[in-house]
Specification:
Number of helices: 4
Radius of gyration: 17 Å
Order of helices and strands: EEEEEHEEEHEEEHEH
Structural class: mainly beta
Length: 200
């Protein structure tokens, strides 16, 4: 379980393909605090630490994860938003994030907002998926590349988020451009409500 409050970004230092899986080796400031089998969110995707060596750690992404996320697009040198799992006696500063990415979206617009930046993202609209809670609502929560954000101006297949300078500088939003693909996790509460309504 995560909160969507990014600790920092890790840098990809090696990528290894193993059949349908990809092993990503990364470097960040808290490598020495990690343990084997620990969960870390990478651009919002919960992955398990499988190796720690020489100041780096390695995680494995399987085909299902690669199909639903932007991890398969990563290259050596790319920055990845990372967050360790929540400590249960701490504050929930973002929202409840599972680390289970639902799909990717494309950045289709960026607009200056006097110091902050509005990003507009478009995702594939599917009526059946929307019935199951895969949509955004105004002032609701959404996770973009692991970052807990508030939705603005949602449409059937787009939404905006406002990124303050701190978030821009301390996450990989600094690398997002028009055409970039990001990971989305829709709000779990919306999914539960949609599921309950479908059972009535």
């Amino acid at each position: 379980m995560f909160s969507g409050i990014i600790e920092e970004f890790a840098t990809v230092v090696a990528i290894k393909h193993d059949k349908d899986n990809i092993d990503f080796t990364l470097k960040c400031s808290f490598v020495d605090e990690l343990g084997i089998d620990q969960s870390v969110a990478h651009n919002g995707v919960c992955l398990t630490v499988v190796e720690i060596k020489d100041g780096t750690y390695t995680v494995t992404a399987m085909r299902e994860t690669l199909d639903r996320s932007n991890l398969g697009l990563l290259k050596v040198g790319d920055k990845v938003n990372v967050e360790r799992s929540m400590v249960m006696n701490g504050r929930l500063d973002g929202h409840i994030v599972q680390g289970h990415v639902d799909m990717t979206a494309e950045c289709v617009a960026m607009e200056d907002a006097d110091g902050s930046t509005y990003f507009t993202f478009r995702y594939p609209y599917d009526k059946e998926m929307a019935r199951r809670g895969y949509f955004t609502v105004d002032k609701g929560s959404v996770t973009v590349n692991g970052v807990s954000l508030t939705v603005c101006n949602p449409t059937e297949d787009t939404f905006q988020v406002a990124i303050i300078p701190y978030t821009f500088e301390h996450t990989n939003f600094c690398d997002i451009r028009i055409g970039s693909r990001v990971n989305l996790e829709f709000d779990i509460l919306g999914k539960y409500i949609a599921r309950l309504q479908s059972l009535q």
